[in-house]
């Protein structure tokens, strides 16, 4: 007998068991796939700016424990920028990792080629989770104290990774930071516009 693993989950509503603290109590979570628009009721309880981020996600995987959403993994923009959120009382219990692993599996099955993220270097948990779930380093942006990472999910994703590494190695950090900031601003603008539409 063993615990279920993300690869064992065939449908979006199957149970995932997590041992939160080396004791016998197990948290049971299920994962639900949709978009931010489809799952809007489930993410309303998240604090801002997470709520707005996930409402505008084109792909959203939520972890549910006892009918309460405790984690979310969202993908937005054409660059497939990802974000993960775990409610504070569930942090350090494996829920974030399982949500991420399940989301990466779902995205791979749906034919998504790659996922990207900018991760703060001082957020050790996020860095560990990123590399544990298969991300590869594109560039360390020392001035921003972040790293750019990419999850290549297909052969096209591997090609995008190689090209990203080459382009980012040729660009000065300052120029790359400006590009990231302009993409972030545009994404924030689109998110705000989508948020207004969702509230109507």
Give your account of this protein's structure:
The protein is α+β, with helices and mostly antiparallel strands and 200 residues long. The protein has one domain: Aminopeptidase. 38% of the residues lie in helices and 27% in strands. It has 6 helices and 8 strands; from the N terminus they run ββααβββαβαββαα. The strands form 2 sheets. Strands 1-2-3-4-5 form a 5-stranded antiparallel sheet. A 3-stranded antiparallel sheet has the order 6-8-7, sandwiched between helices. It is globular, with a radius of gyration of 17 Å.
CATH fold name, please? Aminopeptidase
Mean pLDDT: 79
The number of distinct β-strands equals: 8
Count of discrete alpha- or pi-helical segments spanning 4 or more residues: 6
Q: How much strand?
A: 25-35%
* Proportion of residues in helical segments: 25-40%
Order of helices and strands: EEHHEEEHEHEEHH
What are the segments in which pLDDT stays under 50 over at least 5 consecutive residues? 1-26
CATH architecture: 3-Layer(aba) Sandwich
Strand order across the largest sheet? 1-2-3-4-5
**CATH level-1 class:** Alpha Beta
Largest sheet: 5 strands, antiparallel
> What structural category characterises the helix and strand content?
alpha+beta
Q: Overall 3D geometry?
A: globular
As for the number of domains, it is 1
Q: Mind telling me the CATH superfamily name?
A: Gcn5-related N-acetyltransferase (GNAT)
How large, in whole angstroms, is the Cα Rg? 17 Å
N/C terminus separation: 49 Å
